[in-house]
Amino acid sequence: MPYVVPSPPAPPGAPPPGPGRRGRWSRTVRRFAAVVALATGAALAGPGTAGAAPAAPVAAEARAAAALERVTSFGANPGGLNMYVYRPAALPASAPVVVALHGCTQSAQVYSDNAGLNTFADRHGFLVVYAETTTANNANKCFNWFQPGDTRRGQGEAASIRQMVAHAVTAYGADTGRVQVTGLSAGGAMTSVMLAAYPDVFAAGAVVAGIPYGCGTDVVSAFGCMSPGVDRTPAAWAQAVRNAHPGFAGPWPRVAIWHGDNDATVAPRNADELRDQWTALHGLGQTPDRTSTIGPNSTRRSEYLAADGRSVVEVDRVPGIGHGTPVDPGSGAEQCGATGTQHFIDSICSGYWITRFFGLDGTITPEPPVDPPTEPAACWTANNFEHVRAGRATTTGGQVYAKGSGQHLGLYNTFVTHTLKESPAGHYVVADGSCP
């Protein structure tokens, strides 16, 4: 799929896009996107009554198949999206909201059935709003985070998702101070858009297999963002977000970043660039304050703490998986999700940890930093091309340098091989012949 992020804001006085915004340019982009997505294999596989009043809760035994309420009238919808809601039977007053954004070729129902968020909505009492795009918007059912008219505050798909949140507050009595957003791949990219365009709406977000806001301005440059990725300074990444809502003074949303180590669609280095973007916005450095391993597969977690001890940026690097949402089917306390369709990968229940990061399970309390880090060193042996593609190294003038340490690795090609050791997370040193 084409991973393109928003272009610069429209000139002052430019009219917002309306229902007829899908003109010749939009059709051209969609056709091109469909061709390149099919050529690269990058596309993701991915009922109730409408109106302002919520429908009656669906019985628990019916939820295995479907339990989404369709809301056909939620206010202004310039992006032409669909809104679905998962409402647990015991939804408390002033409940939190999690907005969930599916990947390409997926649907709200597919994401609901497999990602595992509903398990924790039932357990902890929060509302899940599933935004859905269609082939009328995008041939591959990707959120149009590459179209300028869909990625700006007050316009297109971004405005439609914002309106869904407003409707959830009025129709379900949700808490405006506890609204979060998460998404996979194209939905992860759109999560970055929503956090940048509406930092005053979302308290936190979780980007799964996505890229930073502001990487690329058209379909062609999008592929460079996907792989090998784009290396910018933390200050440059942060400024891209500030430009999305000029004058916003904070506080900035908290952000969790999830990425598979073997992602062949969106290079893992994008997790580093997302980290750089959001740590800079929070005024933090790029060295983690706390590291650990979590889950049954020893996912490597790095946390960046605010002055009060809260984790405001978190990076979770999932070993051994490619492009998709990590799930862990089962009935255990830390299990969730299903692998009923492509790009939901049996690994770790990311929904459990994302829910904890959002503070929806009541356990968000400051923890003392771990020093020294508890995370074991990870070793990677690969050629220089793969090191750059995976985000362990950068390239300048045809030469390659280890990220973090800056050690010179030689020419940018597939003929030079080194072993790199990662410790702490995101910092790599040459360890040829000496890495355990």
Characterization of the model:
By secondary structure, the chain is an alpha/beta fold. The protein has a ten-stranded mixed sheet, with helices on both faces. Helix 8 crosses helix 9. The N terminus is likely disordered.
Strand order of the largest sheet: 1-2-4-3-5-6-7-10-9-8
Taken from the alpha-carbon principal axes, the silhouette is globular
Low-confidence spans: pLDDT under 50, at least 5 residues?
Answer: 1-66, 365-375
Largest sheet: 10 strands, mixed
Order of helices and strands: HEEEHHEHHEHEHHEHEEEEEHEHEEEEE
Compute the CA-based radius of gyration: 21 Å
How many helices? The count is: 11
Which percent band covers the strand fraction? 15-25%
| End-to-end separation | 37 Å
Roughly what percent helix? 25-40%
Element layout with pairings:
Elements: H1 24-40, E1 69-71, E2 82-86, E3 97-101, H2 108-115, H3 117-124, E4 127-132, H4 148-151, H5 156-172, E5 179-184, H6 186-197, E6 204-208, H7 219-226, H8 234-244, E7 254-260, H9 269-281, E8 290-294, E9 299-305, E10 311-318, E11 325-327, E12 344-346, H10 350-358, E13 378-383, H11 384-389, E14 393-396, E15 399-402, E16 408-411, E17 417-422, E18 428-430
Parallel strand pairs: 3-4, 3-5, 5-6, 6-7, 7-10, 11-12
Antiparallel strand pairs: 1-2, 2-4, 8-9, 9-10, 13-17, 14-15, 15-16, 17-18
Helix pairs in contact: 8-9
